[in-house]
Amino acid sequence: MFSGSDGSIRSMRDAVERIKNASDSNTFDWIINDLRIYLKNLGMDPQLLIELERRAYYLSNEYSERDTKKRMEDAKRRVLEFLADIMDNHDNKSLIYEVLENFYLFLENLLESEKSI
Question: CB atoms < 10 A from the CB of 14, how many?
Answer without folding.
Answer: 16
